[in-house]
Fold this sequence. Notes:
Elements: E1 2-6, H1 16-26, E2 31-33, E3 38-41, E4 54-62, H2 65-79, E5 90-94, H3 99-115, H4 120-130, E6 134-136, H5 142-154, E7 161-168, H6 181-191, E8 195-196, E9 199-200, E10 205-206, E11 216-222, H7 225-233, E12 240-248, E13 256-259, E14 269-283, E15 289-294, E16 300-305, H8 312-317, E17 324-332, E18 335-345, E19 349-353, E20 365-366, E21 373-375, E22 380-382, E23 386-390, E24 397-400, H9 418-421
Parallel strand pairs: 3-12, 13-14, 16-18
Antiparallel strand pairs: 1-4, 1-5, 2-4, 3-4, 5-6, 7-11, 7-12, 8-11, 9-10, 14-15, 14-17, 15-16, 17-18, 18-24, 19-23, 20-21, 21-22
Adenosine-5'-triphosphate (ATP) binds next to helix 5.
Amino acid sequence: MIIGIDDTDSKNGMCTTYLCAVLLDELQAYGTITGLPLLMRLNPTIPYKTRGNASIAININTDQPQKVIDHVISRIESLAQMNSETTNPGVVFVPDNDQKRTRSALYEYFRLAVTDVLSIDSAKKMVFDLDLPSKSFKNGRGLIGALAACGALLNSNWDHTYEYIAYRKQNVWGTLRLIDKTSIHKADMETYPHTWDTVDRANDLVVCVPHSPDPVLFGIRGRSVEDVTHAAGLIESEPIEYSVVYKTNQGTDMHLIHVINISDIKEMHSYIIEGTVSRTPVTIRGGHVIFSIYDVKGDEIDCAAYEPTKDFRILVRKLIVGDRIVVYGSVSTNTLNIEKIQIKYLAAKTETQNPVCPLCKKRMKSAGSGQGYRCKKCRTTADSTVSIKVDRGFNIGLYEVPPSARRHLAKPLVRVDMQDCDIFSSR
Length: 427
Ligand code: ATP
């Protein structure tokens, strides 16, 4: 039986993945857990999310399905942050004999939950139409993520990575995390690029340890179970209550939709779109850098590199009108929040300078207003200034925000196949 769960936590504590860790331990009393649990990241623009819009799914081989259902529901009731206004848990069960019948509908629902905006009614209708055992609490929004996680578990045909999550003992939740920073850096040095986003080297930040009062101690992301387990084993920390390796769609760019026309872009969706810079980047209050691009039809959209993207903004500030780029990111309030940028063509940048004397090769001086330029020493003259091509200071290629500013779903460059990006083609 597949179990999908979502929306049990609040900003003040808990984490749906912790509930998953507890269930993986306790459900062994009723059967055998098969395969890895899933940690699925859904549409990152959803305003109801607590942090990273995650949901989880577990697969259990059991001959006591009702006991499993009862236990899961009682654990949601005891662990979910029901008092929080924004916590609306949902759980969906897909019994073994319903899996073939529901597979394609649930997979489609999962794909939509990652890229689109779904209603609570759509989830309630799906549960009703498919006649699946489920339980929702309060407004039942969690059913959306719960269904999506079931859809992902029913189909293995999606790009994936792994995350090892270590959980804290309950008695220390909300206190400072005791974890040796040097060992984290060592784990990163030894396992990168097979693991990523453990630290942000450029900004000297530890990325794998959260700051919120939830039960997570640290999370190591990587390309195989062995890689994340090896890296986690190198980290020295306070005692751990549980550790779980998840299969996940993190770091896959699954949220991005390819579009050609800006007119097809909708709020709360994420895109890959090619365009030409139409407005030079400006830095606004707060340190955010904004510029715009136009598409093949001449429609425009603003693009932003927000302050947390740190040095990525240095590159963005170098863009000029006429540069041809591909931007990757989510759209909200009519602005595309850049996760990655591909520079395809650099427009020529010129600077006006005084002409050079053909004899001594030094720059001529102005001969007076409207009287051209001259070299006093060699007695040579020229009528006007010359236009010089300036080095742009960066090359065509694919660039990303630093790990500390990366969205869970964004594919890091260490995972990108450059062939897919067509980055060396010019317009
Ligand atoms: P955590 O990371 O700790 O699990 P969270 O960031 O996942 O927390 P939730 O508390 O789960 O946030 O809240 C997200 C809510 O949004 C859930 O109820 C989920 O069902 C719902 N949701 C997820 N994807 C979509 C979507 N595409 N459209 C509409 N609602 C969605």
